[in-house]
Amino acid sequence: MESPRDILRKIRRLELKTRGIIDAALAGQYRSVFKGRGMNFEEVREYQPGDEVRTIDWNVTARYDEPYVKKFTEERELTVMLVVDVSASGLYGSVNLSKRELAAEIACLLAFSAMRNQDRVGLLLFSDKVELVLPPRKGRSHVLRIIREVLFFEPKHRGTAPGIALSYLNHILHRRSVVFLLSDFQAPDFSRELTATSRRHDLVAVPIIDPREDELPDVGRVTLEDAETGLQLEVNTSDASTRLAYRKAVLKREQSRLHQLRKRRIDTISLRTHQDYLPALRSFFRTRERRLLQR
Questions:
Q1: Could you give the C-alpha distances from 113 to 24, 96, 175, 224, in angstroms and in order?
Q2: What is the number of domains present in the chain?
């Protein structure tokens, strides 16, 4: 177990690294993509030439026999919710970072971006149960608490059930929010919960994959253990047909995941533990900026 001093040092290093990335590469992009995602009703006033016809309040218009329109103001404060998978499979890492460590870096970057934009940010950690919820708040100390929990929280359960986490989120989060779901998505079907959340909120999926999960290496007979169930299986990785079958199963799972997300028009940031995540983040922001400009 790491000492409190080591924990603080690790959190501080992560804060400096992600703040540097925000300053150097993502400055302004978060604000331009997510600002003004909602509108607050302010008042009604008499229709003026040039007003948008769709803003006419027909009830008030009928009452006064003159056209009136609804006036809205941009809702500048966002709520950002980080929904992070802390199941046992997230501890796996064949390169420099485990999946959970990469999730912590992304969560840190998003949380500090939200903080700079004066947005509230919250956290939900899940395994096959909801493990921890930090309600959305502002402030650096709150963001640092979020990062500490993502990095060092010890879950009581080992499985993965994003559906349970999303269902719980939909019950506690009443205002439309930006929701980032960070997980390896290796879980039973949760398409119903994906649909419900994507309708209520601006949902962004962040699949995090380790390269060793893509294919089996040719290293002879090995015993593989499922980190979440403890199930062990002896596999002859020198058998070409076994490696091919494994690769096909992985591709099928990835294609199914992409299909489910595209079907619901859920934006996706696909990350791998052995690759720099900055290009994927930049691509995500550029795509959303283009889409906003086309509206």
A1: 13, 25, 20, 39
A2: 2
Kindly give, in sequence order, each residue whose CB lies less than 8 Å from that of residue 86, ignoring residues fewer than 6 positions away.
Answer: 100, 125, 126, 127, 131, 150, 153, 155
Is residue 161 located within the same domain as residue 284?
yes
pLDDT in tens, 80-99: 999 999 999 888 877 778 99
The encoded tokens of residue 238 equal 């020198």
Please name every residue paired with 206 in a beta bridge, in sequence order, or none if there are none.
182
What is d(CA 146, CA 150) in angstroms, rounded to the nearest whole number? 6
Question: Do 15 and 52 fall into the same domain?
Answer: no
Range(s) of the domain holding residue 115: 4-27+76-209+265-288
User: To the nearest 10°, the Cα dihedral for 137, 261, 34, 77?
Assistant: -30
The predicted model scores a pTM of: 0.83
Is 275 found in the same domain as 181? Answer: yes
Structure token pair of residue 111 = 């949380």
Residue 165 shares a structural domain with residue 203: yes
The per-residue pLDDT of the chain, averaged, comes to: 87
Alpha helix stretches (DSSP H) within 53-117: 58-64, 99-116
For residue 118, what is the DSSP state?
T
Under 8 Å between Cβ of 115 and 109: no
Of 181, 157, 159, the closest CA to residue 168 belongs to 181
Tell me the residue type at 50: G
Cα(101)–Cα(107) distance, integer angstroms: 10
Same-domain check for residues 200 and 62: no
According to DSSP, residue 275 is labeled S
